[in-house]
């Protein structure tokens, strides 16, 4: 009995230890530990493993939030965006963390759903401002969308994230180039190459980077630096265009150096015809440099409305500002006063017993349809003023697209706009937006509106080419462009800032309206903006002039086409010789408030089709 009792205690202890180990192992394989293993696998990029773990957790509890999030993340990383999105919709926005919002946004963008995709990425950044992948995705999206200021801001922030500096510098190089800052672009790409000459995983290949640096140097008028970078370009067999671009840029570099023989030689090696709308990699000169050789066109263009689309700086003082306060048409308690103060114009907005003051920075528009003003308030906020000047009475009235009642009192001083929006405004009202907001050292700043180089590109190479009798004129020549190229060029400004549902107010954006009609679509490339309009002068006002253009393609027995070897289309069965505009391109009054525009969407209009909307 004594022996049995002595053996019983250790046996019992062993059994208890075994039971404890079993319990520990059971707990170790429970959901919490499984989730930890899944998270560890996910962090190591083992997404197949983390997906298996997530499915194992969900077999036990199909509603486990952690398991669902892990499955959604793993699926998205494996390229299965649709099931990931389904899980995210099931969980709802409150359950999503920065990682989930990034993956959701990336997937939506990949499917072309830009607005919700960008919104998801911004929400991710709100939760985690230093989430590097989100920053990189937003840089790429903003650059593609043309939001260059936003792209610059986020790329700058990305440069401080560990492991992302090379990617950020490469993006900054591309962004600064499009922001017309070639020196900054060249510096950023140089820094990226210094960190990794292979530029692995960036938005640029080494050849693309060197070509971009050479282009920057040529825009700065530094051909020796351009040649240095071009000598380092090593085109590969799968990228023959890099070799052609290298030769083309080299021809411009030797041209800038005055070595015309080598410029001819390298141009021949390029083996491609010059694109008539391609801007030259050259310094800007300003419209005045065109006067010597193109006096008639220069004089006509400088007297056109295109040349009066922007007023800035001290010239603002000379505008015909109202001498009495302008009472707000929608709220009589609001008054706007414009006051000359030395070399500035102050806008004072009086709201009952208090006043807000802003400084007018720019006047946009020739006042053919109207003139709107951009002001800065004491906080530095840029605002589009609530009141604009119009050619028809009342002369001073609410700016189009401004609400009758602003969201707050400050809105009576003007609608806040971002620096990106201001850049885009100036880009269509000046030769270059940079010359408008940073004129120092920029010859094109003297254009005071849209100058020759807005459509023809910088003229620095052109003057050298003409003087050296080079075989190409080394400047963009839209006259030689196709109809599609012309539409794209004019559409840089004469189209809506963003795509959306077409409406009658789109009448002010002529390029997309013209392209919607059969006349353009079936013209075999004969119809474009310059078919009827000389871009160097104001539009003709004679209806007979435009009818003659119509009859060149739709001749009747009395009207023959200008050239008999060109195709023609049937004449109008209703009025074959006159009245084309009234039926097919009518004038729409107040489709845009306080404005009159001709509808460039050429079509047979239904009798019940609205001709515009009335009212303000």
Question: Short description, anyone?
Answer:
By secondary structure, this protein is α+β, with helices and mostly antiparallel strands. It has helices at 2-28, 31-43, 47-60, 65-77, 81-91, 98-110, 114-127, 132-145, 148-158, 165-178, 182-195, 206-219, 223-231, 240-257, 260-270, 295-302, 419-427, 433-437, 453-456, 460-467, 483-491, 510-516, 518-521, 543-553, 580-584, and strands spanning 310-312, 326-327, 334-341, 344-351, 354-364, 372-376, 382-385, 387-389, 396-398, 414-416, 587-589, 596-598. The strands form three sheets. Strands 1, 2, 3, 4, 5, 6, 7 and 10 form an eight-stranded antiparallel beta sheet that branches. It has a two-stranded antiparallel ribbon with strand order 8-9.
List the helices and strands and how they pair.
Layout: H1 2-28, H2 31-43, H3 47-60, H4 65-77, H5 81-91, H6 98-110, H7 114-127, H8 132-145, H9 148-158, H10 165-178, H11 182-195, H12 206-219, H13 223-231, H14 240-257, H15 260-270, H16 295-302, E1 310-312, E2 326-327, E3 334-341, E4 344-351, E5 354-364, E6 372-376, E7 382-385, E8 387-389, E9 396-398, E10 414-416, H17 419-427, H18 433-437, H19 453-456, H20 460-467, H21 483-491, H22 510-516, H23 518-521, H24 543-553, H25 580-584, E11 587-589, E12 596-598
Antiparallel strand pairs: 1-5, 2-3, 3-4, 4-5, 5-6, 6-7, 7-10, 8-9, 11-12
